[in-house]
């Protein structure tokens, strides 16, 4: 199989000049069973802390499972498919967001928390780590198991760690262990009104 840099160049060519961190961030499923030093792990959350948010409300919260006991608790609500690969990840993080402020509902909580997740994912790349976000888990069971209040929305579960070899995955999964391509930017832009080509 081609090396990682070749796969990135083949699957993710850029049409315009951007920082390579945007291309180098992808979502592998193969993780090494190697613990992350605490300072390195905290660095990814430090980056998330500086994400923008409306009124500087910072609605994101991260429930971290980095010990064997905490990871085992998370496994109870993760779907079977994701359990086939994420059990090797040294850290699992459930991302939740506060849906309310002292003034009432906070409509941009999910948008703002997505910005924090993006900052986290990019800092992970800088730290030599990989991330894989997933929604293949039982949200209601996660809420119950982790004692998440009703005024917090569950957004996603993220595995964080060091990338492992693709051949450590089951065969069908190993074949998919490549950086995914992206749609051309022109497909994502509208001019002035919805559907009007840019």
Describe it.
By secondary structure, this protein is an alpha+beta fold. It is 35% helix and 17% strand. The chain has helices at 4-11, 21-24, 38-49, 68-75, 80-86, 109-126, 139-146, 171-175; strands spanning 60-65, 91-98, 100-101, 104-105, 130-134, 152-161. It has a four-stranded antiparallel beta sheet with strand order 1-2-6-5, with helices on both faces. It has a two-stranded antiparallel sheet with strand order 3-4. A hairpin with a 2-residue loop joins strand 3 and strand 4.
How would you summarize the topology of this molecule?
Layout: H1 4-11, H2 21-24, H3 38-49, E1 60-65, H4 68-75, H5 80-86, E2 91-98, E3 100-101, E4 104-105, H6 109-126, E5 130-134, H7 139-146, E6 152-161, H8 171-175
Antiparallel strand pairs: 1-2, 2-6, 3-4, 5-6
Helix pairs in contact: 3-6
Strand content: 15-25%
Biggest sheet, open or closed, and with what strands and sense? 4 strands, antiparallel
Structural class: alpha+beta
Q: Could you tell me the radius of gyration in angstroms?
A: 18 Å
What pattern of helices and strands is seen along the backbone? HHHEHHEEEHEHEH
Annotation field: number of helices? 8
Q: Strand order across the biggest sheet? A: 1-2-6-5
The number of strands is 6
End-to-end Cα distance, whole Å, is 38 Å
Query: Unreliable runs, pLDDT <50, ≥5 residues?
Result: none
Average pLDDT confidence is 94
Shape assignment: globular
Q: Helix content range of the residues, please?
A: 25-40%
